[in-house]
């Protein structure tokens, strides 16, 4: 089979293409950072690459004009729509026909995903499960020696530790003692288990906190001997190729025999690769990463453990395990020490997972004795409310609108995405601010835009909706009012669309379906919050905490104004960043905090939104945009009529 | 390379020989039962086989006259000495030159080794560590379900068991529940660990008791749900090829880098093969053998665990581990369930191992509050004495004489070996009884012998010595007195030898060096016993227990008369069979017995023979044969003069 050299820049990764390989196939196999949320199906337009024909002396390659296959129809459509920049190709469409140098532009690289860097700090004492103890065992004498295992236990007893070496340690005990004049470092876990012994010159043990999101995986590696963050990285969750959202992945498992094994393997391999990269970057020995604390929603949690999630895809949504769960890392094929342990933080229920409890841990003291609402907004919104000495939790099916998905111009919260919007009610022109740039872009006249806009991220969507409502461009029921600003609306099939950014070749539009998606999401979240406040009898909040990357880009006044959290005032709303990952790190830092969480979670009351009759009522009420003008027929907001009302906008 | 077919009978095993392969090489590779204690070096004459030239229609092979290489010098010498029966070959010397059918006669097969079959019974209640519990979990309802892990724990709680499923169990919990209408069998260990879950139709869990001797390995498989012995087998310890005795194996490890790994691999592979054979024979599932309790002397124990024994080959003889030790079976590559556990019974000291504590467990109640001596005679003799509420133990370096090794006509205790001897003081002619036949062979006139005699086993050696002493054919110092029976003595180099059995072509002689070997062995054992009785102030025994295959063939009156156990009367002496293996089984049968042993062993006082000055004195005193006539110069019994005195016998 003919083979071609493929060199990726700027990483310098070299790979080989053969057969019908696309650039995406080669990149995936070679571990090149390349965004994709559709899994190489030509749908998301994320995997953009650039190829420059000609001689690349540095790599000893001459790239021919025909090194890649011709532009496909989907690429041509993407160019037409301004979604694919001129000169670029979609990696998943372009087949490799000759040696080629492929440049992955910054905006197509995974690690550019903006996981908040501000959120790596938290307050707790360093008291991890794994501790190091330098020991010197007495020289043995002839008569009736204790065994060396007994001598080791006796030496540890002086630290208040009762532990005997297990097999892995035992077999290397005597050689280490012989080589180091009977000195060694004992690696002890939970003050009761000798998990390794080291020569007396290794002084640092490391731990990894991992947040396994359905979209991306975040890794934080800490030096647990010093309490310092040593490394962090994030990457796409490769399960995305089996389904973008959680339910489509569960469906994949239901419909494909062995599907769950593929999903499990995909996420574990990604985590293992990230850990290996950390190990290499930090020049760690094979046995130095000894603790892993991981969080994730229930489906991510189960799949990472190798448990089929199918029971979570159908009522009665029974978790295989809910409590904190610990497992030797070797059973998850993570490629770290045989002795390392993985701790999965506890879950609250079928739809409220360890990511939520991780976030809760970071706020557990702040929430104690106060009325605090903690909201983690993603494809589902998980909500935790403390009030009157009790804690309750629920999950609301917001759908992916708040993450920028299902929005026609939606993109993930990465460079170039709109995160702030101001619409002039008089002219309908919009000023925007994009991620990666502090200054506001000027008016929506494209020629004046200093930076190219890639689309709207989840937080930008909020502001668009509030601004549209405030300007009177939509009514309370969420229908466009094109008569309010004829200059910015154009016909869109049977409906209308609103011109938000008029940049050349890549105009950004808001469609009626976008409004609907946001409406559904905000209604679901608001209804969930109301069920919880009802449940605990909470009438006002001391504080409202927004967790997740989403919250970082939000302007709290807009959160208050759009009404997704009934009763929340702008000055109560605070973003707490990637609290899930921080909770994992916090649990790793301090065993007592971890135990506190385990206990606390057992007392959280789970409120089921799916079976609560009031949920529907609250949902319908929350569909409205309160600051918008009344619609012609207020009754059209009824949930049962949404489809019909959408048709009528035409 | 030319290849030849080799078929072994009676097993029917088919194999292929190529290159320079000997019959032994082929047999070893093919797993044919064939004795060897020298590891194929042409030294032990054990690996005898028979080849019949001609057409073997059953196997479609015609065996040529030249199917094997010519007789080697060592074979010719063996024939001359009567050690190799006419018509037989040594498998380790005969190279395969053509297709051949090789018959392995019964006396050359490993499984013929006579491990006592009488000793498989012991008295204890069935209360093993692993128990089965049939459970039915409640159907899940919609609101706030417990997880299935919690439901399983709750169901077990009704049996008084507090346990949560671990990873291996958790991943298959929901599928098993779904398939079996929420019924399952929980496999629980130690009342606190769920080690497996089974569909609700498997009702038997099995356990293996293993006695890892330096010569042979004995396996007993029990149905732990019913308390029945289901299978037993024994095989050579394949480590023999690295050294026949313990110290030569330790030397092998000291002199050869990676040697201990080879020894470990050899014994584990043998045990794994025996377990697999048991599993297949009993038609067990892969996961049904869940407990293993193993015993062995300290070096066998350490090597089986994968611990280098080199610290046991040099002062100060420090054990890596002495207490009972448990290890997942998967870490020892035993090929049984991932969840199975191996328990190594505790050791007493550097030379007193888990085989001794196993034997002790079977007698622990019998020894309590009484003066009882327990002796396990092998290459070392391990001795345990209870007296006055205390227990002490020692090891004596007897050498292998009692096992028939280092005796010129010595053989292992297998079919055809002399186990009883009566010598007529008047004529010097001997009647013998051989293993496998109840009647006595007639007078030593070879023509009248109904069965062929292969040699003398350890127990036979005892009687020979006692009879020679009683007849006055040796003096108290152990020197031959040829003048007492000129008809049976002939010159042997500078010394003499005594004709014991005059069978045609295979006379059996007792040599002066044989007397010396037995003298050294009996003196070592007697000295060890005296140190122990001194230590505890014990002046007489209530009972003397002999453990091991050796004891089974002993006539207790001869044990008393030869004086190896100073103070022991014939009617106090009792054989307790393979007590080591039985102790392993007993510990497996009953957790409380096992725990009792662990506690008791911690209180056993270890007496060091190597460093005790009195040992030498006692040793010298015990060299004498008390019933023999005085020697010309009584002083020659002094240990320092033995070599010289040996020269003088010429």
UniProtKB/TrEMBL annotation, chains A, B:
Q: What name does UniProt use for this protein?
A: Na(+)-translocating NADH-quinone reductase subunit F
Per its record, what are the GO molecular function terms?
iron-sulfur cluster binding
Organism of derivation: Paraurantiacibacter namhicola
Query: Could you tell me which residue ranges the 2Fe-2S ferredoxin-type domain spans?
Result: 4-108
Q: Where is this region: Disordered?
A: 625-650
Compositional bias (Polar residues): 628-637
> CDD domains from the entry?
fer2
Entry-linked InterPro entries:
2Fe-2S_ferredoxin-like_sf, 2Fe-2S_ferredoxin-type, Beta-grasp_dom_sf, Corrinoid_activation_enz, Raco-like_middle, Raco-like_middle_sf, RACo_C, RACo_linker
Per the record, where are the segments of Basic residues compositional bias? 639-650
């Amino acid at each position: 089979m003919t083979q071609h050299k493929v060199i990726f820049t700027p990483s310098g990764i070299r790979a080989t293409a053969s057969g019908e390989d696309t650039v995406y196939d080669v990149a995936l196999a070679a571990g090149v950072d390349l965004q994709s949320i559709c899994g190489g199906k030509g749908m998301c337009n994320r995997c953009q690459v650039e190829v420059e024909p000609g001689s690349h002396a540095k790599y000893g390659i001459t790239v021919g004009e025909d090194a890649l296959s011709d532009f496909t129809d989907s690429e041509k459509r993407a160019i037409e729509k301004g979604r694919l920049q001129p000169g670029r190709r979609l990696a998943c469409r372009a087949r490799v026909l000759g040696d080629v140098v492929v440049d992955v532009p910054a905006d197509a690289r995974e690690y550019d995903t903006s996981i908040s860097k501000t959120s790596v700090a938290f307050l707790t004492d360093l008291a991890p499960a794994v501790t190091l103890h330098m020991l010197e065992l007495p020289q043995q004498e002839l008569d009736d020696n204790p065994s060396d295992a007994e001598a080791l236990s006796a030496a540890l007893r002086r630290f208040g530790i009762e532990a005997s070496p297990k097999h892995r340690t035992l077999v290397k005990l005597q050689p280490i003692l012989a080589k180091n004049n009977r000195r060694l470092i004992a690696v002890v876990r939970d003050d009761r288990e000798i998990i390794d012994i080291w020569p007396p010159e290794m002084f640092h043990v490391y731990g990894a906190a991992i947040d396994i999101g359905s979209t991306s995986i975040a890794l934080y590696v800490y030096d647990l001997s010093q309490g310092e963050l040593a490394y962090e990285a994030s990457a796409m969750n490769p399960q995305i190729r089996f389904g973008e959202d959680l339910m489509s992945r569960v469906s994949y498992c239901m419909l494909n025999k062995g599907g769950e094994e593929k999903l499990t393997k995909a996420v574990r391999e990604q985590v293992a690769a990230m850990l290996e990269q950390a190990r290499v970057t930090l020049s760690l020995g094979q046995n130095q990463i000894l603790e892993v604390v991981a969080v994730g929603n229930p489906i991510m949690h189960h799949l990472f453990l190798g448990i089929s999630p199918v029971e979570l895809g159908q009522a009665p949504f029974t978790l295989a395990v809910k409590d904190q769960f610990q497992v030797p890392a070797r059973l998850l094929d993570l490629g770290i020490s045989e002795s390392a342990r993985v701790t999965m933080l506890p879950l609250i229920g079928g739809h409220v997972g360890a990511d939520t409890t991780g976030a809760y841990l970071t706020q557990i003291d702040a929430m104690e004795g106060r009325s605090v609402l903690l909201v983690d907004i993603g494809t589902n919104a998980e909500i935790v409310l403390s009030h009157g000495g009790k804690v309750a939790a629920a999950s609301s099916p917001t759908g992916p609108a708040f993450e920028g998905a299902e929005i026609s111009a939606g993109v993930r919260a990465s460079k170039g995405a709109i995160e702030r919007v101001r619409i002039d009610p008089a002219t309908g022109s919009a000023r925007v601010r994009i991620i990666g740039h502090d200054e506001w872009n000027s008016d929506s006249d494209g020629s004046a835009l200093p930076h190219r806009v890639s689309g709207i991220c989840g937080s930008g969507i909020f502001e668009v909706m509030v601004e549209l409502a405030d300007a009177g461009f939509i009514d309370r029921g969420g229908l466009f009012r094109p008569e309010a600003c004829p200059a910015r609306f154009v016909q869109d099939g049977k409906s209308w669309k609103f011109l938000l950014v008029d940049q050349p070749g890549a105009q950004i539009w808001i469609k009626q379906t976008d409004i609907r998606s946001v409406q559904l999401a905000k209604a679901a979240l608001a209804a969930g919050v109301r069920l919880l406040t009802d449940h605990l009898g909470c009438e006002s909040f001391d504080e409202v905490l927004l967790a997740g990357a989403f919250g970082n880009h939000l302007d709290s006044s807009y959160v208050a104004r759009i009404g997704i959290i009934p009763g929340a005032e702008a000055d109560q709303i605070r973003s707490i960043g990637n609290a899930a990952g921080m909770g994992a790190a916090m649990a790793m830092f301090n065993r007592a905090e971890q135990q506190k969480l385990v206990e606390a979670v057992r007392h959280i009351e789970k409120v089921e939104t799916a079976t609560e009759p009031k949920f529907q009522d609250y949902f319908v009420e929350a569909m409205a945009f309160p600051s918008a003008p009344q619609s012609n027929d207020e009754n059209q907001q009824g949930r049962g009529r949404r489809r019909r009302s959408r048709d009528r906008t035409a």
